[in-house]
Design brief:
5-stranded mixed sheet, about 20% strand, globular, disordered C terminus
Length: about 800
């Protein structure tokens, strides 16, 4: 659908309600979901014509009692509308394996069937007839007929259940006015746990084979849910208005979806092994992100997809804000800097950079902006906005915004107006610079004696940032030489050169850190005279945030060709071994292993990998970091001694044993028998994916062919596990085996969009080859992308840009990479 069509239809219609009758009984042994959608709506121009969306097979359709004929293009024309109308459409969706909107999954552990629905951005139309655009909000009443042994969840609570002859009918009360993409039905023989908390009825669900893990994580889930609901209700002066709040973990789902009152999760978030600190924090942030959507997206909805950031950037910002203020995950912003923000810096300097707010012409284009600009950059920009106007004023503005627009739709201007009124600041210039302009500011410092000037590489955005002044402390520190902060100076930037006053004298300083406290979204550079000292000093900075800001600088210099992989690897390995925050150790370990494997020239790869392995062995001496360190060792172990120590340390830890087998397979070990034995004793219902990952790593032609068929052709691997298998498939030093599959990837590009937005992004990004290619391949891939669907095109361009930078770093020139 185009924006023009949506605006015309939105101006013409007001939807009064949806009554949707859904029959799931055909899914026990078959594939069909049968629906009857009754839409009651008014027309502001009687006699006008419009259309309703329905991409399922239409069995019958009537408007005000008169029969309609589907056009075959996913639409049903609605001619000669009356002032008040009733539309009734019977439809069947039979593609519930690879289709969009609804998915039927079979648990390999027990053969039980589970069904989930997920509709963003416009996939409700694949299941039932609706006006599938965000601003046409209406109450939804769902009636669901399901097998007797199944539990059904939906948006509203207090359902009525009737026993039928061989099934049960679940009748749910009306929802509040919701966009079609905010609605949901999930069903299956779930294991259910419920708790009462602060007046809310909280429920969590998972397939029965994962019941022990759901029970293990229940206390954490309920605690975080209670903390999040309390924080957001107070911060926005609007408690979550529904008593029931459910969270449903389902198989073969990508990520999580913020359906009102009934969040759907991929059950990979129920970690089969004991979660690491970083995994636990990610779990908390995803929970809070989806919860924040109850306000940002569900209660107040963007009018059209150009304001997607009003949903996603705000939810991503709010989850870090809430985690830090209301939960035990007080280093949430540090892990944001160590993960998503680094990806955003790279994306914002590449071919897919775009303004956070931009015209979106149709829904296909909208699907392409669920990306690093909208999410982590958007979250960082909102953190800067809160810094710019002040947190108290920010809260006041958000409270006014929700009070004015609850259960309706809003635009960027609505938000800017509320925040301007609350803060007393004219935000028009800020809005244009930050939301309507692509790209990343870059800052450096000039020092002339005791005079320090902050210098922007180009015209900067209006922003507030901080400069930290550090001096070495040569006292008795258990961590060796450390830097102590002597001053922190906030600077409001309005022009290219900004004096920084209030710093200690030059002889009392060793390091000046730009963007200390990470208050803004900008890259930085040390001055050339102190560049090498800056790299050495990064690990000596005293906090996770200060070390993170330095690491971000080093990473950015690597990606733009201003630092070598050896320099970046040594620096970040030193940061890793000095780090005190468990939240960022795992992201840094992943980052430095990626540098060794993907960015280092072939002649330096082994040495950098060995250095990471040694760091992992040192970290493993700390019992609290043993698990994370051994995971890192499983990726970087190279010598027989490393592998032996890994085996000894792993003991009976099934997760670590799988990881060790992947590494041994990559190095040419005969692990087939051991993999089969481990598969037999692993209780994880998805353990077959781990066994396939072992085969993916083997330097064996038959294994590569088998895995590619299952992964890329048959799409037999659950979407949430594609990255794991693909990473094992594309190994360095296997170019002769992998070259044909690089070609197969390009051949698959025209079809990668099938299955919807999430599979398109996953397959386009994760299957892109980081090895066995050359500069000509990158050029061909970028040309091929121009004929692909927008979501595939942008994902491919972003991934190819990163690999181009990797090739430059490895010494395989592809032309100058723009900074």
């Amino acid at each position: 659908m185009s924006r023009t069509e949506a605006e015309r239809r939105g101006a013409l219609l007001e939807v009064e309600r949806y009554d949707v009758d859904v029959d799931l009984t055909g899914l026990v042994d078959g594939a069909e979901v049968r629906c009857v959608s009754t839409v009651t709506f008014s027309c502001r121009e009687p006699g006008a014509e419009t259309f309703v969306d329905c991409a399922a097979e239409v069995r019958s359709a009537t408007l005000n009692g008169s029969s309609l004929t589907p056009t075959g293009d996913g639409r049903i024309s609605l001619p000669a509308l009356a002032g008040h109308n009733v539309l009734r459409v019977e439809s069947v969706q039979a593609d519930t394996t690879t289709g969009q909107g609804v998915h039927r999954a079979i648990d390999p552990a027990d053969g039980e069937v589970y069904v989930w629905m997920s509709f963003e951005p416009d996939e409700a139309r694949f299941v039932w007839a609706c006006f599938d655009q965000p601003d046409l909000k209406a109450p939804h009443a769902f009636t669901v007929t399901a097998p007797s042994a199944w539990t059904v969840t939906s948006n509203s609570g207090d359902q009525r259940i009737e026993e039928l002859e061989s099934a049960r009918r679940w009748t749910f009360p009306d929802t509040p006015p919701l966009s079609t993409y905010n609605t949901v039905i999930n069903a299956g023989p779930f294991h259910e746990i419920r708790r009462e908390a602060d007046g809310h009825d909280l429920g969590i669900y998972a397939r029965r084979s994962l019941a022990p893990i759901l029970e293990r994580d229940a206390d954490e889930l309920f605690t975080l849910t209670r903390q999040g609901l309390a924080f957001f209700g107070e911060a926005f002066a609007m408690p979550f208005p529904q008593r029931k709040y459910d969270q449903v973990f389902v198989p073969e789902f990508g990520g999580a979806m913020e359906n009102y009152g009934c969040v759907t999760w991929s059950d990979v978030f129920l970690r089969r092994a004991t979660p690491t600190p970083a995994e636990s924090e990610l779990f908390a942030k995803v929970l809070l992100h989806e919860m924040a959507h109850m306000w940002f997206g569900n209660i107040v909805t963007m009018r059209w997809w150009d304001d997607l950031w009003l949903n996603e950037a705000f939810a991503e910002f709010a989850c870090h804000w809430a985690a830090e203020r209301a939960t035990r995950y007080t280093d949430a912003w540090a892990s944001h800097l160590a993960g998503g923000k680094l990806r955003a810096y790279l994306s914002d300097q590449g071919p897919v950079s775009h303004p956070i707010h931009q015209p979106i012409h149709d829904v296909a284009q909208a699907a392409s902006i669920f990306d690093n600009i909208t999410y982590p950059k958007g979250a960082s920009v909102l953190q800067q906005l809160m810094t710019y106007v002040g947190e108290e004023q920010f809260r006041v503005g958000m409270t006014a915004y929700f009070a004015r627009h609850a259960w309706g739709s809003a635009t960027l201007q609505d938000l800017i107006d509320a925040l301007s009124e609350a803060s007393g600041r004219d935000l028009d210039t800020w809005r244009t610079a930050w939301l309507a302009t692509a790209g990343t500011d870059r800052f450096s410092l000039e020092r002339d004696g005791d005079t320090v000037t902050l210098v922007a590489a180009d015209t900067p955005r209006p922003q507030v940032l901080a400069v930290g002044a550090y001096r070495r402390n040569n006292g008795n520190s258990t961590n060796g030489e450390v830097l102590e902060r002597r001053a922190l100076v906030r600077v409001e930037v309005t022009q290219t050169r900004t004096p920084v006053t209030g710093l200690p004298t030059e002889e009392d300083l060793d390091v000046l850190l730009i963007n200390d406290e990470d208050l803004t979204f900008a890259t930085t550079r040390p001055d050339p005279a102190t560049r090498d000292a800056f790299f050495r000093a990064a690990a000596q900075l005293p906090t996770a945030i200060s070390r993170g800001v330095a690491t971000a600088t080093v990473w950015d210099m690597l990606t733009t060709g201003e630092a070598t992989a050896a320099e970046a690897g040594r620096c970040i390995t030193a940061v890793l071994t000095a780090e005190t925050s468990d939240a960022v150790i795992e992201p840094y370990l992943t980052l430095v292993a990626n540098i060794a494997e993907l960015w280092a020239p072939e002649g330096e790869r082994a040495g950098l990998t060995a250095a990471v392995a040694e760091a992992c062995l040192c970290l493993a001496m700390d019992p609290g970091r043993r698990q994370v360190a051994l995971r890192g060792l499983a990726r970087t172990a190279t010598t027989p001694d490393d592998l032996t120590r890994l085996r000894d340390q792993a003991g009976d830890d099934v997760d670590l044993l799988w990881r060790a087998l992947v590494r041994e397979a990559e190095l040419g070990g005969d692990v087939s028998s051991e993999s089969a034995r481990l598969l037999e004793r692993d209780p994880d219902p998805d353990a077959w994916v781990r066994a396939l990952t072992v085969r993916a790593a083997l330097p064996d032609p038959a294994a590569k062919a088998e895995v590619w068929q299952k992964l890329a052709v048959d799409r037999a691997v659950p979407v949430n596990s594609v990255g794991q298998v693909a990473a094992a498939f594309w190994r360095p030093d296997q170019d002769a085996l992998l070259t044909p599959y690089a070609r197969h990837y390009l051949d698959s590009v025209p079809h990668l969009h099938r299955g919807g937005m999430i599979p398109a992004m996953v397959f386009a990004g994760q299957l892109f080859p980081p090895h066995a290619i050359d500069p000509a391949y990158i050029e061909e891939a970028q040309k091929t992308s121009q004929e692909a669907a927008p979501v595939v095109r942008n994902t491919l361009l972003e991934r190819s840009d990163m690999v181009k930078r990797m090739l430059n770093s490895r010494g395989t020139p592809t032309g100058r990479v723009s900074a």
